[in-house]
Amino acid sequence: MNSITLNGATFAYDLAGDDQQPTIVVLHGGRGIGDRRSDFQAFLPLADRYRLLAYDQRGCGESSLTPPFTFEQMVDDLEAFRQQVAGGKKIILIGGSFGGMIALSYATKYPDGLSHLILRGTAPSHHHEAGAIANFQARLHQAPSASLEMVHKLFSDRVTDDTELRLIWLALQPLYYENFDANAALERTRTLSLHAETHNALFADKAYDLRDKLAEIAVPTLVIVGGNDWICPPDQSRLIAHGIPGARYVEIAGANHPVHIEENARVLAEIGTFLSGEES
Known about the structure:
Blueprint: E1 2-6, E2 9-16, E3 23-27, H1 37-43, E4 51-55, H2 71-84, E5 91-96, H3 98-109, E6 114-120, H4 128-138, H5 148-154, H6 162-172, H7 182-191, H8 196-204, E7 221-226, H9 234-243, E8 248-252, H10 259-262, H11 264-276
Parallel strand pairs: 3-4, 3-5, 5-6, 6-7, 7-8
Antiparallel strand pairs: 1-2, 2-4
Helix pairs in contact: 2-3, 6-7
């Protein structure tokens, strides 16, 4: 693990690959829940051709709990990483789930910082939450330890503390994986650094809505989603792909929200084709 102080916060990050190659920056999902580790491992094979950077966003994982925890601040943090770690050069940006929301926000605020944009299982506005709640109600039988109230808390600023957030996260895990492994979910949840403070602050802000700005994004864009994604359903990725001029859309049947893990080889192949400029 490496660390760096930017914009008054200290960030944990991992780096791999030749520093003479173009830099790929990976943004993890989970507002106060996710961290860089699984995404870094999933995309690590790309480090044979690119410089791969993944970091814990402000208030997430092993990075410092330094407010403010806002979309705008996290976008500015990414720009600071581009300037300080990527040498101010254009980056290839991969964002999944909440990280995809930050990636889209970055693309609208700092368009000159990108060479390519890759989005995985995300949404262009907070309105996706209604669809996720409907999906939960339809799949309630898959997560017998979860409740509708837990899902509403997940999308709110009302989580009591870190312990409650960890328990909600564990209860909802069966919804995220098509081949659910209870022991693996327990270990993931046990070792996860999560922060209710960050979670609540980011969900208190309901201003995120880029639907009217998608047409402004001119950078080559790839949108990938699992066909069974429950929390950021495919209709949200289709909305993004239709809104961004020339965007390429890939929906992988039989995969859920972590499509980059469940169908890792397929996702890496799609990214390789996209970055090489070839058509599948």
